[in-house]
Every structure is written in C-alpha cells, then in structure tokens.
Amino acid sequence: MKIAVLTREFSPKAGGAEHYAMSLVEGLSTTHELHVFAQTIEHHWPGVHYHRISKPFSRPRFLNQWWYAWQTWRHTRRGFDIVHAHENTWHGNVQTVHVLPVWIHYFALQPLKGQGLERWLGSSARAHLLTAKKWLNVALSPRLMSYLWLEHARLSMRGAHRQRHITSVSASLTAQLFRHFKLDPQRVHTLMPAVLGPQTWWRQAKAKVDAQAQNHSPPALLELTRWLEVLSPQLSLQDACDVLHRPAPDLSSEALMSPALKTRARSALNLPTSVTPDQPITQWLLWVGHDDKKKGLRALLLALSHLPPSVGLMVVGRGALSANARSLAEQYHIAKRVAWLGPMEDVSPAYWACDVLVHPTLEDTFGMVVLEAMSWARAVVVSAPEFCGITSHLSHTQEAWILEDPQDVSELERALSHVLTDSVGNALATRAYLWAQEHTWESVCKSQDAVYQAVLSQESTPSFKRGVGHG
Q1: For residue 195, how many other CB atoms are within 10 A of its CB?
Q2: Host domain of residue 221
Q3: 328 and 382 part of one domain
Q4: Partners of residue 285 on adjacent β-strands
C-alpha cells in the first residue's frame, strides 16, 4: 500500500501531534510504502520517502496553511492508495484530529460578552445577537474564515468524501466532534496515542551505536555504556562495552525508579545540586510544553515557591524560552531551583531525572507527555478530563493524581506535597508504569492499518481486534 502522510512539522522537537505522526510512520513503514510531505523534516527512517514542501509564508499562519494544503493536494491527488492528513486540508481519505477545532473554541467555548445587553434584550435575544456578532467577525476575518472552512472541509463525509474515515486521539475529543459536526459514527474512530517506552529507547540507542560502528570511539557507544553501567551495575566493564551483543538491561519499574539512575540522569543534564551549600536539591519536578500559559507553568511556578527548597523544577520545551515565565521565577524567588532545559530531541534523560511529572494543562486533547512519563515509571500530576484527554482513561490516586482545577495553586501545592512522599509517589509510579505497558504503538499501528483497509475496501467499519489501539 502506498501512503502519503501530511504534516507540516516532522521533527522530534515538535509537539505531541507530530510525535504521533512520526510513530505511526515508523511502525507502518515495514509493511507499507510511506511518503511524508512536510515543511520541516528532521527525521530519517529506513524505507520512508521524504518530500519537502516549500514555505513562502511564515506569517500570517493561515496563508501558510492554505499554501501547504494546496501544495500537498497537487503532489498527492494521484498515485497514492491512502492520503492520511494530520493537518487542516480539504483532501485526504483519512483525517486524524489532534486538537479541538477552532469552530468549537469560537462558537461553543468562547464566553459571550456584553452583560449590559441582557437587561434590555433578555438572555435568549442577547445570545442570538452575540452569535450574529461572531459571524460578522468571521466574515471580516480572513484568518477565522480560512480555519473554519478548512476544518469543515476536512471533516466532511459527503459527496466525494463518502469513504473518508476520521480518527481522533482521545474519547473526549471524539465526543466533542460528534457534538458539533455531522459525522458518520461508523467512520469515526478513537485511536489513543501510545508510547515508545524504555525498551524502544534501548533498541534505538543500539541502532545508533551500530550506525557509528566504523568510528573507533563513537560518542553514542560511550553514552549507552554509561547508562548500561547504571541500569545493570552487576555487569563487568567488558560486558558493558559489548552493548551491541547484549540483550536489553533490566527496564522494570523498580530499575527505572532507582536512585542511581536518577543521579546519573541529573548529572548528565547538569542540574544544580543545591540552592545554597546547606540546602541541597534532592527532588525534581518536570514540566514539558511549548505554551507556558496553556500548559499551566505559571501555577506550577507559584506552587513551587510554597514547597521546600529541596524541590527543584526542570522546564523542557519552548516554554522554557518564555521571558514571562523566567520573570515569574525571579519574582517568586525560586530562580535557582528552576533548570530551563529548553527543547530536547530526546526527553528520556529528563524523565529519568525527575521524581514527578506535573502537567497542569488548561487544554490538551490527550497529553502525550503524561503517557511518556508513566512509561518511565514516574508519578504524574495532571489536570482533570475536561482539561486533559488522557485523564478520562485514568483513576485518581491509582494511575495518576488528578487535579480538579489546574489553576488552583493551593490544590496543586497539596497534590505535590502528597506525591513527593515516597509512599504515595512510588505507588503511583508503579501503577502508572503498568498502565502504560498496555498501550503500545504496535497495537495503534494495527488499528490504523485496519482503517486504511476499510477505506480501500469501501467498508464502513474497520475490522479492529477487540480493544486494540482504542482509547
């Protein structure tokens, strides 16, 4: 099967949607011919064909969206069995929705303003008037008009798109799509993201070493040997150096939670060891995200200021570049306890180094970072289902500590105080690890392949194995 994959950013430094697309490509490349059409390509995988799409418009973004949609339509309208879009495009017989559509944001969730009108018109008339005002804003805004038209075009299941199938990344997002768009339930599927996990990290690290085998002292080999010495301390130095011929080390939850592994990771990341000579930092929180406001970094910084000075915070992603966030750290007198790590191609060392992942997001259709941290046997503190899709599949105090209100700093502080205790944190981490092991990309790829087969055979319902790949 020849498949075209459409996503503007195809890079490990991008967000969860891009990681989802990359993982599918990697998993499906062994059985299909994959062609990736992207504007940014920082990914190389055996057997995958890459096609770079030009980017003449960086700003405004909606013009670039139109350009990308048109260019990919030109390149993929012939010669492909499946066109799988992860972007707003009018074409593509498989569409994966990663985020809440602008239509829902603007018309359903954006609060209606103008309280003074209610006294004169009544609530019903006021609502109709303000809705009309929103439509007027759409008519006067090329940006809004573009996004809304593209969204409805990609979610259309009529006419030429009668065989289109749509997948979403969480049950809560699927429910929202049904609530606001006319969709055929037989052709809409929830394929929850999965996780690569420690075992895949080990395989990929060994492959990287193997690729550098011609080098007498490949840096990847040295780095992998250092990790192996920590994960399997009983090995001799000779055994550790012979990593290419060794099976994976002990990657159980107990091994991943070992203090030696955390210490090694903290050293590799050059994390500060103390605030002052007599105040060591012994526990580390981790926040990962690109949007510091939407992902709740401000509330976390304020909560950190109320926690003991022995607790530090790693900030990973473009959110670490936020001048506002850094200013808040100074204002709250915690700057020496915050490590601004920035975007990382491989976040694994940060997961290893932390004790707790904190994700007080205000909006996440899934929350890939949460599942990744769970797969590394780390306790997670995460927003409730109305803010973060993954928590609709989790139980409070079982696989995660769930925040009812991620903006409530007092609640966040209390949650962290509980989870940072060994008894609570270790139990959460162990259950999180076991839950994450049930969600693999192999099962998601099988379900995605079933969707492709349904498109080609013009069936309404894919033949999924029971429970495989579904959220």
Answers
A1: 23
A2: 198-251
A3: yes
A4: 313, 356
